[in-house]
Amino acid sequence: MILQILVPVAVGIVAVIIFVVGDRLRPESWRQDEEEAPGTLVVDLINTLFMAVAAFVVVICWQQYDNAHNHTIAESKALIDVYWTAHSLPEPEHQQIQKLVHDYTEQVVTVEWPEMDNEGRMSQSTQDTLDTLRDNVMAIQSTDDNVTDLRASAIAALEAVSQARHDRSMDADLGMPGFLYTALWFTTILLLFTAVLSGVAVSKRSLLMTALLGIVVGAAIVAIYGLDRPFSGGNIVPKDAFTSALSRFQHIT
After folding, report:
1. TM spans, by residue (predicted)?
2. What value does the CA radius of gyration of the chain take, rounded to a whole number of Å?
């Protein structure tokens, strides 16, 4: 929360400093009292460039976030399929498989989610639980055709779980390309110079408007950085798909 406040304020202060220092350094010919500045075309171009870059970055970040959320939904659905399939297996496989599915799902919520947020990586202990679950399903042997079919269904569902988990692992390590952030900060700096380039005189009103501009731009940058990584930062993909699966397990049992 402190970062979300400090960055916009800091950018606002920087904008004011640039405005005041630039006013002292710019030639007299740049100063004018008319309502429209002589550099209107350049200023408009800078504004358009900044908005285009910011919009492009936000769209990409939001698409990554949406894909990551869809992967968690696919994984939770596959876990429910495994749990439901195990419900029809004979003992002791019935309880063993269901317990491992429940343990894995619970570890994703309680262990892996914080680790993805803090460390930006998946939990090895949670992966070990999934591997144990797969080994137990693969070890099922029976001459009963019904049990054989259930085993095949469980294996297919586990493949879907593994694939969705792999996608989630890629999402956790996914970030915005560096060149886009370079373009964002470059256009931000240009935007902060618009007051100097437009020839606006330093006054209480112009100082206030410049500070507000910096605050708005800083807040936009904070929001963009919060969207950058879907499983860490200020806007984390919710784990509601897995908590819903845990609730579903109770109803199946």
Report:
1. 5-22, 42-62, 178-201, 207-227
2. 27
Where do the structural domains in the chain lie, given as residue ranges? 1-12+40-250
CA torsion through residues 39, 44, 45, 49, sign: positive
Q: Are 215 and 11 in contact (CB under 8 A)?
A: yes
- 229-234-240-246 Cα dihedral, nearest 10 degrees: 90
CA–CA separation, 33 vs 59, rounded Å? 40
Contacts of 15 (CB under 8 A, 6+ apart): 192, 195, 210, 211, 213, 214, 217
Phi first, then psi: give them for residue 164, nearest 5 degrees: -65, -35
DSSP 124-148: HHHHHHHHHHHHHHHT---S-HHHH
Angle at 240 between CA 167 and CA 175, to 5 degrees: 40
**Which of 210, 244, 215 lies closest to 23, judged by CA?**
210
Entry field: residues in the chain:
253
Nearest C-alpha neighbor of 191 from the set 215, 208, 225, 227: 215
**Amino acid (1-letter code) at residue 72:** T
